[in-house]
Amino acid sequence: MVGLKEELLKSIWHAFTALDLDRSGKVLSHNLCTVLNVPHDPVALEEHFRDDDEGPVSNQGYMPYLNKFILEKVQGNFDKVEFNRMCWTLCAKKNLSKSPLMISDEDAFKVWVIFNFLSEDKYPLIIVPEEIEYLLKKLTEAMGAGWQQEQFDHYKIALNTSREGLSAWELIDLIGSGQFSKGMDRQTVSMAINEVFNELILDVLKQGYMLKKGHKRKNWTERWFVLKPNIISYYVSEDLKDKKGDIILDGNCCVEALPDKDGKKCLFLIKCLDKSFEISASDKKKKQEWIQAIQTTVNLLRAGSSPPHKEARQKRKELRQKLLAEQEELERQMKELQTANENKQKELETVRKQLEAAAARAAEEEKKRLQTQVELQDRFSLELEREKMVRQKMEEQVAQKSSELEQYLQRVRELEEMYKQLQEALEDEKQARQDEETVRKLQARLLEEESAKRAELEKWHLQQQQTIQMTEAEKQELENQRMIKERALQVAMQQLEQLELERKEALEQYEEVKKKLETAANNTKSWKDKVAHHEGLIRLIEPGSKNPHLITNWGPAAFTEAELEQRQKSWKGKKATSE
């Protein structure tokens, strides 16, 4: 009953959408009750179509009424062709094309009914390209023409680009235009439509003239036989107006071929539970076709299966649904892959941005490092220039002091003879020697501090060398020049430091000797008049010694030879450690 209800709804939908429900709903409901043999319910009809806001039309629509009061009461004892013709009458005038077609209105009606059978179970109703191809193939086969697959493929491509399928009226226009029946006359097309209509709608599996043997008179009479899924009806002629009887088929029936007898050929027998029927076909081919068709029908009844065309339609529908499900699953998978791809692209974009940011930071750090290196190089060059200027000044001062020192030494040599007679100043000289020893220790401490400062300077120099070694290969030549200048600077610094120390020592010794000489001058007043004309020289004179004198960087006779060797070894060791 569910399948029957779906078939009825398709025809009713066409009629319902073509009418103005407020004015013609009662007419449609009344006609449906009439053709479907459903008892009329005037009270329910008036209640449904009453003209106020509380009526079922306003808040429930027409379908609840149709299901409850009409379709649920349908028993199946009605004429399907008459039902379809009533619905066709209500919708054809509004929707049928006004352009001339090569098919009649009756043929258009049959195409419309076939459309309702083959259309999809969703609204608005359409027939998909696969079902259009199936119908056109059936029509072409019925017309005895060849199927033009390439032509239909082009039409299918054009159709798929614009819509999912055709409506009933577009299908009528397609068949009526003769696009797929070129070279065929109207009668041939009409016969093909009628044959397909009989098969798909009226469930006519086979039909044709054959001879039937009577049960009482045993005579042979020509009849028009019509095979349906559960019955074989036979008529006087093919107009189906004078029906002579039925052969009821079920799973217990069988069909078998008979040998020729009584001058009749191509005989076969249909056995039923209560009666058997002898039939003669026109030729062997027709005989075999009828035997096979009847046997197939009996087999379907035994298996409880639907007619072949309905079974085929159901399989095509299931196949389409399966393909649609597979396509939807494929689209879902494609969307998932696309989403995963987009996420991957976003991740890659994030990684790319991170790499770009890291590269930018690295470039910025490299830029800062190069800038720092350039600044250090500029600072080093500036300090190098400054050191050169200081060295030049110091060299000039050293040359000047050396000249003065030579003069002082010359004066000291002149005064040494004069002070040999100052024996009473020996005690003072011893005291001066003790003081000198104290000064020497102070000088040693200063020398150690100077060595520490020198080690710090060399450490800074090593750090500077490590920084410079990180520069690029094109800086190698500048590095070599810097090393040469550095070594020259070290030598100059060493010489400058030695000269500076010697100058400081000479000045300190000068001050000490001056004090001693002033003291000695007070004690040796007897010699004051003799040395008064040597103005200013007494400041550098110091008492002599019986031992040989040594002139060193720290002043005359400041250290012994052993002390000098010890200090020289200590200095060389510190220098090797710093290097």
UniProtKB/TrEMBL annotation:
<dbReference type="GO" id="GO:0005634">
    <property type="term" value="C:nucleus"/>
</dbReference>
<dbReference type="InterPro" id="IPR057837">
    <property type="entry name" value="PH_SWAP70"/>
</dbReference>
<keyword id="KW-0539">Nucleus</keyword>
<keyword id="KW-0238">DNA-binding</keyword>
<keyword id="KW-0175">Coiled coil</keyword>
<dbReference type="InterPro" id="IPR001849">
    <property type="entry name" value="PH_domain"/>
</dbReference>
<dbReference type="Pfam" id="PF00169">
    <property type="entry name" value="PH"/>
</dbReference>
<comment type="function">
    <text>Phosphatidylinositol 3,4,5-trisphosphate-dependent guanine nucleotide exchange factor (GEF) which, independently of RAS, transduces signals from tyrosine kinase receptors to RAC. It also mediates signaling of membrane ruffling. Regulates the actin cytoskeleton as an effector or adapter protein in response to agonist stimulated phosphatidylinositol (3,4)-bisphosphate production and cell protrusion.</text>
</comment>
<dbReference type="InterPro" id="IPR057836">
    <property type="entry name" value="EF-hand_SWAP70_N"/>
</dbReference>
<dbReference type="GO" id="GO:0005886">
    <property type="term" value="C:plasma membrane"/>
</dbReference>
<dbReference type="Pfam" id="PF25530">
    <property type="entry name" value="EF-hand_SWAP70_N"/>
</dbReference>
<keyword id="KW-0597">Phosphoprotein</keyword>
<feature type="coiled-coil region">
    <location>
        <begin position="309"/>
        <end position="530"/>
    </location>
</feature>
<dbReference type="GO" id="GO:0030027">
    <property type="term" value="C:lamellipodium"/>
</dbReference>
<comment type="subunit">
    <text>The SWAP complex consists of NPM1, NCL, PARP1 and SWAP70.</text>
</comment>
<dbReference type="InterPro" id="IPR011993">
    <property type="entry name" value="PH-like_dom_sf"/>
</dbReference>
<protein>
    <recommendedName>
        <fullName>Switch-associated protein 70</fullName>
    </recommendedName>
</protein>
<keyword id="KW-0472">Membrane</keyword>
<dbReference type="GO" id="GO:0003677">
    <property type="term" value="F:DNA binding"/>
</dbReference>
<keyword id="KW-0963">Cytoplasm</keyword>
<keyword id="KW-0966">Cell projection</keyword>
<dbReference type="GO" id="GO:0005737">
    <property type="term" value="C:cytoplasm"/>
</dbReference>
<keyword id="KW-1003">Cell membrane</keyword>
<feature type="domain" description="PH">
    <location>
        <begin position="203"/>
        <end position="299"/>
    </location>
</feature>
